[in-house]
Hints:
With 98 residues, this protein is mainly α.
Amino acid sequence: MSVPIGPPPDPRAGRQRALVAMLRVSVALVAILAVGGLLLPEAQARPVGTAMVVTLVAVPVVRVGWLVIRWLRRGDLRFALCGVGLLVLMAGALLVSH
């Protein structure tokens, strides 16, 4: 009989594969936009820089929304309410800033 080497397989591994892929694409997009903002002339660099900032702000909002939906599906109401509270706080900050 052989003895298994290492920890047993984790049944939770890979459960947020799509979220991780979205975050990786977002990092690559922000890096490309940052380089474009540095290398392009000022007239073209401004909208590229704006797109970079919008991406940097939108990605965490999407991530929290994604997790709220996941927590609601799993029945974890406390975490879902915390996530909703955070989204409401961000929306309130946006309204106050204008």
